[in-house]
Amino acid sequence: MDGSQDALSLVLFSGTDDKLTAAAVLAVGAAAMERKVDILLQYWALDAFRADRILKDHGVAPEAGPEGAAIVQRHGGQHWSETLRQAKAIGDVAIHACSLSMEVLGLARDDLDLLVDDVEGVAAFMAEATGPLTFI
Amino acid sequence: MDGSQDALSLVLFSGTDDKLTAAAVLAVGAAAMERKVDILLQYWALDAFRADRILKDHGVAPEAGPEGAAIVQRHGGQHWSETLRQAKAIGDVAIHACSLSMEVLGLARDDLDLLVDDVEGVAAFMAEATGPLTFI
Amino acid sequence: MDGSQDALSLVLFSGTDDKLTAAAVLAVGAAAMERKVDILLQYWALDAFRADRILKDHGVAPEAGPEGAAIVQRHGGQHWSETLRQAKAIGDVAIHACSLSMEVLGLARDDLDLLVDDVEGVAAFMAEATGPLTFI
After folding, report:
1. Is the Cβ of B90 closer than 8 Å to some Cβ of chain C?
2. C106 reaches A (C-beta below 8 A)
3. What are B35-88's pLDDT values in tens digits?
4. What's phi and psi for B83, nearest 5 deg?
């Protein structure tokens, strides 16, 4: 398979646990198919990768309502950070922090979980991540 | 036209009526252009396809505010489920329920509207849906 | 570079300042790489381009919370409309208002900022915007 043709390039913006779980499942699915995966973390998704709170409750999309939130929490299941760890173990998966979002949120490299590989700008990401962009 | 090249692969996550309408319009547009369309329903989008409430009010994005919600409701127009029915009638459009989301929400196949063709995992969807992923 | 192959086709749905900033940065990055960029404005993103309020506060994603909203506002930085103006100055960037959303929101062409090039339907957009769709 031609990796560059089938690369999955995810721009993660949202930081709720339901969306991050959906994103992680797409990433591990693509990694299992030997597709290259590049992930850019922006805004609230980046905030969710802070080392001191990655495993904390990040809520769910507002539309879930209290009932939906309770259903997701009750289900439990594997945490999205663990799914991403698996994706990195089985495939070519890189996770980048967006430099502009780092600046907006006032974060330094050391504030982030070790899942994050580096900090880069959008232009560098777009040059490196050769697949179509999927914004989540 | 090469269907596999131009396939539209939609991952629907949000279940509000405004986003589902936007998604349905993209699907019917692609179907009319003879593009293959695959739709994967996750979380709140899946919940919106429950047979007993597909036509009920699913709200709009929170940012709409009360004024925006009222404007959308006043406009009326064709329901997104009817637009998807048309898309399926004119083109090669398949709607899949994500098996993981089925489990999280505690849903069985019989709980879903007949617009849904089958239940499948993300890996199967990614193998079948050959187009770039659009997450809505 | 083959422009049609690498075109960036953004469907903007959300109208909060954080998402519009993320979208504008992707657009200017692609324009700088000489990629063709087509943007379709729907619903709340379209509403944000009203001439009389484009520079007003459009809020941030609900998940930001009051703390996140304050952080974004404190940061300041270049407004997304200015970033889009730059993108149009340096590259082949077209901004289209979705005709269906114009009708839903009761807007006329004159209500919109001059950044918007024209009003068109989804079918026309999909015919013109040859790149994979990124929904924001």
Report:
1. no
2. no
3. 999 999 999 999 999 999 999 999 999 999 999 999 998 988 999 999 999 999
4. -65, -40
Give the pTM: 0.95
Q: How confident is the model at residue A122 (pLDDT cuts 50, 70, 90)?
A: very high
Strands B8-12 and B37-41: parallel
CB B136 within 8 A of CB B19: yes
Q: DSSP letter string over chain B?
A: --TTTT-EEEEE----HHHHHHHHHHHHHHHHTT--EEEEE-HHHHHHTBTTTTTS-----GGGHHHHHHHHHHH--S-HHHHHHHHHHHS-EEEEEEHHHHHHHT--GGGB-TT--EEE-HHHHHHH--SPEEE-
Q: What is the mean pLDDT of chain C?
A: 94
Q: Among B38, A12, A132, which residue's Cα sits nearest to residue C133?
A: A132
What pLDDT is recorded for position C130? Answer: 82
- Residue with structure tokens 């049609």? C4
- Count Cβ atoms below 10 Å from residue C63 Cβ, excluding itself: 23
Q: How many CA atoms lie within 13 A of A91 on its CB side?
A: 23
| CA atoms of C80 and C54, how far apart (whole Å) | 10
Of the partner residues A32, A63, A134, the one whose CB lies closest to the CB of residue B44: A63
Give the 3-state secondary structure of residue A93.
Answer: strand
C80 with C57: CB under 8 angstroms?
no
**CA-angle at B107, arms to B105 and B113, nearest 5°:** 120
CB contact under 8 A, A68 and B59: no
Partner-chain contact C22 A15, CB within 8 Å: no
- Asked if A71 reaches chain B (Cβ–Cβ under 8 Å), the answer is yes
Residue C133 with chain B: CB contacts under 8 Å = 8, 26, 132, 134
Q: Mean pLDDT over residues B109-128, rounded?
A: 96
What's C112's DSSP letter?
B
Chain A partners (3+ C-beta pairs within 8 A): B, C
